[in-house]
Amino acid sequence: MHHAFSHQNPYPSCRSATYARRGMIAASQPQAAQVGRDILAAGGNAVDAAIATAAALTVVEPTGNGIGGDAFALVWMQDDDGSGRLHGLNASGVSPQALTREAVTRDGHDHMPLYGWTPVTVPGTPSAWAALSERFGQLPFEDLLAPAILLAREGFPVSPAISEQWQRAEKRFRPVFTDPATQAWFSLFTPEGHAPQPGDLFKSERHAITLESLAQSRCESFYRGALAEKIDAFSRATGGYLRATDLAAHQVEWVDPISVTYRGVDVWEIPPNGQGIVALMGLNIMQGFEDLHARDDITVLHRQCEAIKLAYADGHAFVTHAEHMTTRVEDLLSQQYAAHRRREITGSALDPTPGTPHAGGTVYLATADENGNMVSFIQSNYHNFGSGVVIPDTGIALHNRGHGFSLQADHVNVVAPGKKTFHTIIPGFLTRDGRALGPFGVMGGFMQPQGHMQVVMNLLDFGLNPQAALDAPRWQWIGGRRISVEHGYPLHLLREMTRRGHEVDYAFDLTGFGRGQIILRDPDTGVLCGGTEPRTDSAIAVL
């Protein structure tokens, strides 16, 4: 906004930022954004709009999220005097009680598999919707899911980016989804024998019926009702670990968000088990460099890449379910530790060994209403459609979040019963001097902290508006000294990065660089300024 962020767009071929006063929804699908806008128009607040948009996204973007996934949220509730409070919601689920390291290795695995029942943990998405509505919502819960039910029942035209991802997934799944647990995926998602083309009408009566059950029971049926019984029965029949008792024990966690101050703005994330702390550690390292004058500068790009490597090395070593962490969040985010890590950055590429980051399947959305309430919300089935396990006759595709567990007995993130794994999905939020600026996020597996750091620096260091901050080309560290960069980066920068020891991949496929949304609010005028992702079928809907 005009007090902190530029109105200029240095990428004239791209869209301009979007402005509004009464409300704004930024989402990865136009139909879902419109659902949220309609909820605002019907008298709902930003929380109601976020729930309705999220439910609609399970229908229109099944490639990235679903009823059987996890969710997190940062919620700013505004007071009449302009102050407010940021609330954190962790709705990720734990591993089943029967899922032990010994059981997984006994099944012949030397690492957590990606598909099937083994990586399935308790889904938290429905519980997130219900908890947000109960605490902050204004409209009846059934009203919030009604648009998603209609989209599932009457059908929706599949958008181009989602069609492409759907087709890729089908091609990948045909040879591997051969067991009884995953066979129902094809009947649900390829009812005509193939993935839908752009513009094809896709409908799912089974999804609609399940959403109706969730609406009528405020999602209790998923955890302690008929849907839980169906999940339990299918798990028992097809060799799964998940049981009705695991679902019944699930509870969301209201948590205190964590933050660092970067260039005078407080950047907020959900605490572990989420990886938001990686973005904060990266920004903390970059905070000590004062000479960041130009975005497309070799020193800036090199330092960014090195900072995120160091942050990820620590994230993979220390972050897991908060109850199992042996390193304090405060220590990881201290200025002293940031200075120590900063001194490790030289003119040449480092070669840390934290693991191999990769992309995932997630949706991120941001909402704001005219009263200053705002929501940063993210939900995910993790790896595209998730585990491949689909509960017959329900439309429920279960996520594979447990793939993030380690099978190393001495690793902090080793799989264990009732444990939350290192989690990739992270909502972000910005405040300044105790006043809300707004929600932001960039989804995409291990790209997310990297996207968060780049977007925040685009806004605060380089003066880009929300749309320009998302339009700007991105880079991604993908392990070791390997860096993947989008085609918008100047070639002379990439040549210099190579000379500094980076192994640079000049990428033309943009699907691995995340998809983001931003809404910023001028604390004085209440004017909203939004940006939406150019790498997918995103849209902003306004009042």
UniProtKB/TrEMBL annotation:
Pfam families: G_glu_transpept. GO terms for molecular function: hydrolase activity. The keyword Hydrolase applies. Transmembrane segments: none annotated. Keywords: Hydrolase. SUPFAM superfamilies: N-terminal nucleophile aminohydrolases (Ntn hydrolases). InterPro entries: GGT-like_enzyme, GGT_ssub_C, Ntn_hydrolases_N. Gene3D superfamilies: 1.10.246.230, 3.60.20.40. This is Gamma-glutamyltranspeptidase / glutathione hydrolase. It comes from Kushneria avicenniae. The lineage of its organism: Bacteria, Pseudomonadati, Pseudomonadota, Gammaproteobacteria, Oceanospirillales.
